Amino acid sequence: MQFGIFTVGDVTPDPTTGRTPTERERIKAMVAIALKAEEVGLDVFATGEHHNPPFVPSSPTTLLGYIAARTERLILSTSTTLITTNDPVKIAEDYAMLQHLADGRVDLMLGRGNTGPVYPWFGQDIRQGINLAKENYALLRRLWREDVVDWEGTFRTPLQAFTSTPRPLDGVPPFVWHGSIRSPEIAEQAAFYGDGFFHNNIFWPADHTRRMVQLYRRRFAHHGHGTPEQAIVGLGGQVFMRKNSQDALREFRPYFDNAPVYGHGPSLEDFTEQTPLTVGSPQQVIERTLSFRETVGDYQRQLFLMDHAGLPLKTVLEQLDLLGEEVVPVLRREFAKGRPADVPQAPAHASLRPLGEVSAA
Questions:
Q1: pLDDT tens digits for 168-201?
Q2: Those residues with Cβ within 8 angstroms of residue 93's Cβ, 6 or more apart along the chain or in another chain
Q3: What pLDDT, on the 0 to 100 scale, is given for residue 356?
Q4: Which residues pair with 44 in a beta bridge?
Q5: Backbone CA torsion sign across 312, 318, 321, 326
Q6: Which of 41, 98, 243, 257 has the most CB atoms around it within 10 Å of its CB?
Q7: What is the pLDDT of residue 259?
Q8: Which residue has the higher pLDDT, 230 or 205?
C-alpha cells in the first residue's frame, strides 16, 4: 500500500490566535509539508486544484514541479484535477511535462471539484458536469495513447492530426484515479477504463463509502479488468493526534468548531462517531484506519488530510512526525497480513512500464 497526505490548500485564520497566513506563507508551507512527508517515509503528496479564495493551489503542476526538484522518491499527485473545466489538451501536456521532470513520480486524480462557480469562470455549464467529465477524459486518454489524434466532440473545438507534446515518459501515461464522494457515474467511469477509484472518505459515513466502492468493484469486474478484489481503490481520511487522546481533543476542538468545511455544525464527538475523522492517540488512528479494510476490502492507497482549518505549520509537521514514526509503520505491517497474493500493489510508473523498458532517468 501507499500512504501519504493530501492538501486542499486553504488559507484559514488560526482560531486560537486570529492570525491569517499570507498566500505566500501558505504556499511555502505546502512545500515544507511535502518535504517533511518524504523525510518521515510517506509515499505520496497530493494537492488539490482551486481557483477561488480562500484556496491557493490554482496551478498544481507548478507546485508539484517545484517539489519534484527537491525530492527523490515521493510520488507527486493531485487530489483533484478539474477534468470538467480544464482543457484536456492542456492536462495531457502539463502532466506529461511534469512526468518527465519528476522521473515518472506522477499520477493524478480527476474530479469535478466542489466549487460550482468555477464552471462559468472557465466557460462551462455546471449542468453538464458529468458529461464534461466523460468526454474530456475520453479525449485525454487518446492524447496520451495515440501519437496523432483526430477528434470531434461537444465541448471543445475539433482536433485534426494533433500531437500533444511531450509524449508520456516511456510511452506510459500517468496513472489516473477518478475521485468522487457521491457520484456513481464517476465510479462507473473508473471501472469502465480499469482506472483507480478514490473515495474522499471524510464527510460521509462508512455505509456510503462501502456502497460506492462496491459499485466500482462490481463494474470493474463486469468490464473485464479482473476480479472485484483486483480493482484499484484509494481512500482519504482525516486525523489529528497527540500522545494523549484528551490532549488531541482539546487542541483540535477550536479548529474543528471554526473550520469552513464543517465548523458550526455537528459536535466534534458526533462527527468523529459518524465519519472517518479520527482525533486521538496514534493507537486510535491505527485502529480506525485498519477498520477501513472491513469497509472496502484490501485497497492500494491511503491519504490523510492534516493541514487545513488554520492549523499552524509547526503543528502539522508534528503530526507528520507521529504519522511517519508511530502510525504508518504499523499500518504497513498490519495491512500486509492476510493480503491475498492476487490483490495488486499500488500502481507506480516502474510497474506500469512495459517489461524490459528502462527510463532514460
A1: 999 999 999 998 877 889 999 999 999 999 998 7
A2: 164, 165, 166
A3: 43
A4: 4, 75
A5: negative
A6: 98
A7: 84
A8: 230
In this predicted structure, what is the pLDDT of residue 114? 65
Rounded to whole angstroms, how far apart are CA atoms 239 and 56? 22
Q: Is 254 exposed, middle or buried (0-12, 13-18, 19+ CB in 10 A)?
A: middle
CA distances from 330 to 113, 149, 291 (A): 33, 47, 13
pLDDT band, very low/low/confident/very high, at 361 (cuts 50, 70, 90): very low
SS3 (DSSP) at 148:
coil
The H-assigned helical ranges of the chain are 23-39, 60-69, 88-101, 118-121, 129-145, 184-193, 206-222, 245-258, 268-274, 282-290, 292-296, 313-322, 328-336, 349-352
pTM above 0.85, yes or no: yes
Amino acid at 305: L
For residue range 206-227, what is the model confidence (pLDDT) as tens digits? 889 999 999 999 999 999 999 9
Is pLDDT above 90 for 53?
no
Own/partner pairs for 310-317, CB < 8 Å, 24+ apart?
A: 310/12, 310/13, 310/14, 310/15, 310/20, 310/255, 310/258, 310/259, 311/14, 311/255, 312/14, 313/29, 313/32, 313/33, 315/251, 316/29, 316/33, 317/32, 317/33, 317/36
Whether the CB-CB separation of 235 and 302 falls below 8 Å is answered with yes
**How far is CA 202 from its chain centroid?**
12
- Give every CB contact of residue 122 below 8 A, 6+ residues apart in sequence: 51, 85, 86
Cell 483533484 belongs to residue:
80
